[in-house]
């Protein structure tokens, strides 16, 4: 501890039942910070308060590593790699996959691969532009972020899942969709740049 200048943690270990978090690095009152955080079997539900609306219904376990650089209070930079196990989100269960995020300036590089079990798979890749206000307050992320060619791919995805996630209004159609689309514009109301869509086993409830 350097009074008025910095605080160094080397390391700080937090444990609760089978969850474990190890943090080490230096926080500087004026200047760039340098922190590494390792997570083992952490309950994802604990992250929901960071962005209550966007992360509502989040659950499961995560192992990962977070590297933070830059000024944490004003303009954080860094990388996150994580593996999700037995996840859940908005009534969707059995979610497993990997997450890779990198923040450089105000550009959030995104590479997310999710296996939804018998409901299909989803992948997101590409840049998301975030405001400095959203960096300081993650609850603003959905309202203030913009998409700049974010590619979303779905594999054999159950159409009913789109309604449960709020992507589409409830639709009286059964079936599967495989698609690759590119999104731009506001994260709250994204626009479609291009898309390839393949529909399979489409039908109406009660119809053969």
Main-sheet strand order equals: 1-2-3-4-5-6-7-8-9-10-11
Task: Output mean pLDDT.
Answer: 86
Beginning-to-end CA distance, first to last residue: 71 Å
Judging from the principal axes of the Cα atoms, what is the shape? Answer: globular
For this structure, the quaternary state is single chain
What percent of residues adopt helix (DSSP H or I)?
under 10%
Tally of strands: 11
What would you call the structural class? mainly beta
Beta percentage is over 45%
Outline the low-pLDDT stretches.
none
Query: Biggest β-sheet: count, sense, barrel?
Result: 11 strands, antiparallel
Order of helices and strands: EEEEEEEEHHEHEE
What is Rg? 19 Å
List the total number of helices.
3
Question: How do you describe this structure in short?
Answer:
The chain is mainly beta. It has three helices and eleven strands, in the order ββββββββααβαββ. An eleven-stranded antiparallel beta sheet has the order 1-2-3-4-5-6-7-8-9-10-11.
Please characterize this protein's 3D structure.
- The protein is mostly beta strands and 208 residues long.
- The chain has three helices and eleven strands.
- The chain has an eleven-stranded antiparallel sheet.
- Strand 5 (75-89) and strand 6 (92-104) form a beta hairpin.
- The termini are far apart.
- The relative contact order is 0.10.
- The model has no long low-confidence stretch (mean pLDDT 86).
